[in-house]
Amino acid sequence: MAGRYPGPERWKRLIQALHTFTLPTHMDLGLSGRVALVTGASKGIGRGIAEALAAEGARVAISSRSPKGIEATAAEIGAEPFVHDSEDLDAVPELLAAVERELGPIDIFVANTGGPPAGPDPLGFDREQWSGAYRTLVLAPMAIAERVVPGMRERGFGRIVSVSSTAVREPIPGLILSNSHRAALLGALKTLAREVARDGVTVNSVLPGRIATDRTIQLSGSREAAERAAAEQVPAGRLGTVEELAAVATFLCSERASYLTGTTVQVDGGLTRAV
Predict the structure, then answer these.
(1) 60-95 CB burial, b ≥16 within 10 A, e <16
(2) What separation in angstroms does the CA of 235 have from each of 55, 193, 207, 265?
């Protein structure tokens, strides 16, 4: 039986070692120095993702149609601001050229856009509203992707993350424009993902559920109403936070997510019933 238990001196050394041992507090995602472009990033989800990328050491460009809003956000989170209207497809080359002049070739593209108008009547939208939703939700992100992907493939690294919606799994009442066009973009990105996977480029989407944003509050009528609905309908019993969604998106942008492509990640507190 002798020698089964450590003697007093060995216990002392073990205790001293435990006192000096610390667990790592940060997982290196390999984003330091990477150049990221996040669109629609003056507030809400886009801002949250941009801030998380910057915190990981990425060099972040953020864009929005609001000069005042995007400049204020950039100053607060340590990003470079660029004024860009996502519906202006002809301005995409100028935006990308400006980002590359300031920061370098784009390694990461986070496609985030605001939602199109809501309405109770699925047939109550005119042709211009349908066209506008298509430009914003499908053509705009693809116009950027088609210009940044070739460089990503040449360099052997690239990340595209689309901020979509759980509506692509379960259409949301009153949001026919979003339901239709976000699903269309998802199909396009899935197709692209298969073509570029061998070149170190991944293409994924995050599907936000009830996240505490201005859009969610607006659709609910008030923050209180949004919180009540979430408490009743979301299995997690609450609204999600922008930070929780941003953490998932940031991981998808990382080197550690190199074998994850062509897929979607729901961030919805268990709300979506679809398998």
Answers:
(1) bbbbbeeeebbbebbeebebbbbbbebeeeeebeeb
(2) 30, 31, 16, 17
Summarised one tens digit per residue, pLDDT across range 190-208 is 999 999 999 999 999 999 9
At 233-254, the pLDDT tens digits run: 999 999 999 999 999 999 999 9
- Please answer whether residues 121 and 69 qualify as being in contact, where contact means their C-beta atoms are separated by less than 8 angstroms: no
Task: Please give the full DSSP string across 243-272, using - where no structure is assigned.
Answer: HHHHHHHHHHTSGGGTT--S-EEEESTT--
The answer to whether residues 261 and 203 touch, using CB atoms and an 8 Å cutoff, is yes
The beta-carbon contacts of 115-120 under 8 Å, at least 24 apart in sequence, are 115/165, 115/175, 115/178, 115/215, 116/177, 116/178, 116/181, 117/177, 118/174, 118/175, 118/178, 118/219, 119/174, 119/176, 120/173, 120/174
What is d(CA 139, CA 91) in angstroms, rounded to the nearest whole number? 13
Strand partners, 109: 37, 160
* Whole-structure pTM value: 0.89
Q: For residue 221, is it left (φ>0), alpha (ψ between -120 and 50) or beta?
A: left
**Degrees, nearest 5: CA angle 16-21-25:** 160
- In angstroms, rounded to a whole number, what is the distance separating the alpha carbons of residues 117 and 111? 19
Q: Classify residue 173 as exposed, middle or buried by CB count within 10 Å of its CB (0-12, 13-18, 19+).
A: exposed
Side-chain-side CA neighbours of 33 within 13 Å: the count stands at 2
Phi, psi of 235, rounded to the nearest 5 degrees: -55, -35
d(CA 214, CA 83): 21
Structure tokens at 223: 């923050």
